[in-house]
Design goal:
Elements (H helix, E strand, L loop, with lengths): L2 H18 L10 H11 L17 E2 H8 L3 H13 L3 E5 L7 E5 L1 H25 L1 H22 L2
Antiparallel strand pairs: 1-3, 2-3
Helix pairs in contact: 2-5, 3-4
Length: about 160
């Protein structure tokens, strides 16, 4: 890659990062906390099936961290904050005392559903401007970029 190409790539990524800040979901948590709640709601699945399992089904902290591709301590900190707000609860495993299960409370589930609807509406507005062909290509390209960066720099 030539110097001007990698500079243009970095500029584009930085512009996208700044533009993403303009999308505000109308929820009383930050984006990182909201994403944590979405992953917890989806049980780690990328898309919730229409006939999904019990929305209150729990995940382990370790499983949640793995799905989010973050460290367990980082996810634990977010869960602590969300627990203090009343959106999630921790449940100690009855058999293995080292295992902690985390699940959304009814208030947490309501917040996720409301926030997802708000976010979907906002992203739909962007997708309309782009068109479905460009939107689908961007999703594939972002996934390819993420994979390439992860493969190149994973430790």
């Amino acid at each position: 890659m030539q110097q001007d190409e990698w500079i243009m790539l970095m500029q584009a990524v930085d512009r996208l990062r700044r533009a993403w800040k303009n999308i505000q979901v109308d929820v009383p948590v930050n984006k990182s906390q909201f994403f944590t709640m979405i992953v917890l709601r989806n049980k780690g699945m990328r898309i919730v099936p229409k006939n999904s399992a019990d929305p209150y089904e729990a995940m382990t902290l370790t499983g949640l961290a793995r799905e989010m591709e973050q460290s367990t301590p980082a996810v634990c900190q977010k869960i602590t904050q969300l627990e203090e707000m009343g959106y999630v609860q921790r449940i100690p495993d009855q058999v293995d005392k080292r295992t902690v299960w985390v699940k959304l409370t009814p208030a947490g589930l309501q917040l996720v559903e409301t926030g997802k609807a708000d976010l979907a509406q906002k992203l739909e507005e962007v997708a309309v401007v782009l068109g479905s062909e460009v939107t689908n290509r961007l999703v594939a390209d972002f996934n390819s970029l993420s994979e390439a960066v992860t493969q190149t720099f994973a430790h």
